[in-house]
Each structure stands twice: as C-alpha cells, then as structure tokens.
C-alpha cells in the first residue's frame, strides 16, 4: 500500500497547513473520533501494558535489538502485555521477546510512507493514521515505559510521558531509560536543565537509568506492580458491543 498517498495521511498533512473551511475541519474531527473509537474497542482488554519505545532502524544483529528482545521477554515474564509502536527495529525486538516466551504482544502501528509496517510478532495491532492518536494510545494502557536507544520519535515519546507525569495528567508510572552509554548525553542535558532550574530536581526522580534487565524488572515490580497493586483479572466482554474475549492472556500480575 502506498501510504504516502493514503487519504487519511493526506488529510492530516492538509489539516496541519493552517485554517481550512469549517466543513473540512469538522469532517476531520469526525475522522479522528472514528480512529479513537476503533482503537478503544480493539485495545480495551489488552492491559495492563508496558510500552517499549525505540528506533525502527536497528537490524536483528544489532546489540540494541538483542537487548530489546530480552526486555520484551522480561516484561512478559512479569505478566505485562508488551506494547510498542508495532513496527520494525526495537519495536519488533520487544514484541518478539514477549511473543516467543508466551507473553502477549500488541502494537499501535502508524501509517507512514517509509519504515513502518506491522511486525510479525504481534497478537493484535491497530493501524493509526494520526501521530497524536497513536501517542495517546501508547500512554493510555501502560503502567510503565521503557525507553530503548532511538531517534527523534523516541525522544518525543519519552518527553511526552515525562510531561504527562510531571503535570499530573497521568500517575507517576516508572520511566526506565535502558542503555546508560547511549543516553549519557541526554541524561547530562536533563541534569543541566535541573541545574539551571528549568525543571525541578525532584523531576530527576522520574527517570531510572540502567543497563540491567534484572534492575529494570525490580524497578517495575516496586514502582508499578506493588505500588498500583496490579492484578490481571478476566474481563467479561459485552456481546452487545460486538466484543470478543481475548484468549490466553489473563494471568495475575504479581510480585
């Protein structure tokens, strides 16, 4: 599919150019609403999740890809659904780690003219034409966020999560930055912001930087599972909504 000429992609690009006619802007809001409702229906029984962010460009022989597989497997071992942006690279690796160890793996796939198509390690995914809808969904269902090596999009997702936590729009879910060497300059810049009082020193506590799978697991156990008393229980779908039960994922999330 030529996603560059996808009608929804064209409508988003046109919407960002500036004011349109009132009718066109109203029609755009209806398309966005439909995208939200479709996503809510499909993702309703997926949680609790942990979202893994990272670059789409790393190949399977890259050390960061291999680490992301281990991260996905470890999160699945804790009982979480592993959620990613659904594409290749780090996203594929985290989904693969969960998928191949018997966990549950889902993706919020963005429609792009390059790089992005659903990876083969997803039990369920949804194709989303709007970045802001996708970012909302990646935050909505998760009780922790793991940031692997990535590029501009990964940093955007990291700071989106931190902003929502800092402003109390969502609860103080754990944010794990995985890969201390790769992220060293980023962490130094965050320290610089604190030193110059553009953020508070308390905000530094929102981040946990590690290179250890075991430390990541313990941090998420303490600051997500125990803190929010997470237990995954079977939910009963409403047949009159056309909902179907998701099989095989209703395990207890316990320390």
Automatic annotation (TrEMBL):
InterPro entries: LOG (IPR005269), LOG_fam (IPR031100), LOG_family_nucleotidases (IPR052341)
UniProt-listed Enzyme Commission number(s): 3.2.2.n1
Gene Ontology molecular function: AMP nucleosidase activity
Source superkingdom: Bacteria
GO CC annotations on file: cytosol
Top enzyme category: hydrolase
Keywords: Cytokinin biosynthesis, Hydrolase
One of the protein's GO biological processes: cytokinin biosynthetic process
Reactions that this protein is recorded to catalyse: AMP + H2O = D-ribose 5-phosphate + adenine
Family affiliation: Belongs to the LOG family.
Protein name as it appears in the record: Cytokinin riboside 5'-monophosphate phosphoribohydrolase
Originating species: Flagellimonas taeanensis
Lineage, broadest ranks: Bacteria, Pseudomonadati, Bacteroidota, Flavobacteriia, Flavobacteriales
């Amino acid at each position: 599919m030529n996603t560059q000429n996808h009608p929804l992609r064209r409508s988003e690009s046109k919407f960002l150019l500036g004011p349109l006619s009132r009718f066109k802007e109203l029609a755009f809001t209806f398309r966005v609403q439909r995208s939200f409702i479709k996503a809510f229906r499909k993702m309703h029984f997926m949680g609790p999740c942990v979202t893994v962010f990272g670059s789409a460009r790393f190949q399977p022989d890259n050390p960061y890809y291999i680490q992301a597989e281990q991260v996905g497997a470890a999160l699945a071992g804790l009982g979480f659904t592993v959620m990613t942006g659904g594409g290749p690279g780090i996203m594929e690796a985290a989904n693969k780690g969960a998928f191949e160890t018997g966990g549950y793996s889902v993706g919020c796939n963005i429609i792009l003219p390059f790089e992005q198509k659903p990876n083969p390690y997803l039990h369920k995914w949804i194709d989303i034409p709007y970045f802001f809808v996708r970012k909302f969904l990646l935050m909505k269902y998760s009780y922790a966020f793991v940031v692997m090596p990535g590029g501009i999009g990964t940093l955007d997702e990291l700071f989106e999560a931190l902003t929502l936590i800092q402003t109390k729009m969502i609860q103080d879910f754990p944010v794990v930055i995985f890969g201390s060497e790769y992220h060293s300059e980023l962490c130094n810049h965050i320290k610089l912001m604190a030193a110059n009082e553009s953020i508070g020193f308390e905000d530094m506590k929102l981040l946990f930087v590690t290179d250890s799978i075991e430390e990541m697991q313990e941090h998420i156990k303490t600051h997500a599972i125990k803190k929010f008393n997470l237990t995954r229980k079977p939910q009963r779908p409403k047949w009159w909504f056309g909902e179907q039960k998701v099989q095989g994922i209703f395990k207890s999330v316990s320390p």
